[in-house]
Design goal:
Blueprint lengths: L5 E6 L5 H13 L3 E6 L9 H8 L3 E2 L5 H6 L2 H6 L3 E7 L1 H9 L5 H8 L4 E5 L3 H5 L1 H12 L3 E2 L3 E4 L5 E5 L3 H12 L19 E6 L4 E2 L5 E2 L6 H12 L3 E6 L10 E5 L3 H10 L5 E4 L6 E3 L19 E3 L3 H6 L8 E8 L3 H12 L3 E6 L11 E2 L1 E4 L5 E3 L3 E2 H18 L1
Helix pairs in contact: 1-2, 1-9, 5-8, 9-14, 10-14
Amino acid sequence: MLDGKRILLIVAGGVAAYKSLILVRRLRERGVSVRSVLTAGGAEFVTPLSLAALTEDKVYRDLFSLTDESEMGHIRLSREADLVVVAPATADLMAKMAAGLADDLASTALLATDKPVLIAPAMNVEMWGHAATQANIALLERRGVLRVGPGAGDLACGETGSGRMAEPEEIVVAIENALAGRASGALGVSASGALAGKRAVVTSGPTWEPIDPVRYIANRSSGKQGHAVAAALARHGAEVTLVTGPTHEPDPANVGMCRIETAREMLDACMAALPADIAVCAAAVADWRVREAAGEKLKKENGGLPALELAENPDILHRLANLENRRPPLVVGFAAETGNVVAYAREKRRRKGCDWILANDVSPGTGTFGGERNTIHLIDEEDRVEHWPTAGKAEVAERLALRIAGRFAAA
Ligand code: C5P
């Protein structure tokens, strides 16, 4: 989707500038050529050498550089890209943009460009909330400048609140949307607000089914995808309950945690979290449990092998999707498949009665099995398929959150 696109990335001075280096990596992985402008403030936080190495290109810094201007004037620099991205966008640079100032290379390129501009603001919570900044943002948005974030949470300055730069994965999705012309809707809204007022329940991780007081049946689910979905929905403003089996994942910011062990506990916790507008079932629920878990530790010395009689666990996704009164308006499930991915996922969507299925291709050829990356095919309520590019789990989560926000905006 992004292959062959050209981005002019302007890196201004803020602690979040280190995330722009990760953004460059993510864009380069997708075949995007990135040309960078580093402001004097930006160079206090990341070095020109890091940016040059990651972009595999020269870094432009000086408006009055004879070599730069003869090789590539600032006008050409700002026009040769398909999109101009400012990350981090500081309060100062946004004020310059609003006022039309052009006293350095970054502000001059922004004034000279005829291409769409996407900003990822990052600053202290008071600076973000200041009437001057808010007036500048409103003015820039009226002029068609696109924005992603900022999100809420712990800020690098030690305070808490709005002002944290969008994560690199969110910015990648915003760039895709901007280039695809989907600039209104989900992207036009701040990443922190599109799902405000919506309640979501998300399941994640494995379940543990006891055999006796010390042993259990489990699976290798890491909980990474489910936790990332909960985090992304919360970043977009949803009130999220994360019902999770045991994992090593940190608790996502601004998410209500509900820790369970067994499938039946997971079902009870999901029911207790209703009513909800959105349910996303990403847990790897154990299909079976031991019918009667032993009250005492099973002893080897008793001789023979214990026969474990199994019973089927409740299918939580199926239950939520088929509730008569309190069915969440949007129920989403996952499906790991190897081959015939779309056909099996369509069948699973019908069988479970959910609205969307995110089918995850785990065939060995994709390299996703057990890895950090996912190749998703979304089957929607009309049985249509969207093929998503291979991406990290955080990016899949962000894309899903934007897709959900879009669906509620359209409703
Ligand atoms: O049936 P299968 O395990 O392939 O379906 C996967 C989807 O169903 C996932 O969304 C998973 O979270 C959900 N599921 C569930 N409860 C179960 C089994 C699966 O919620 N007992």
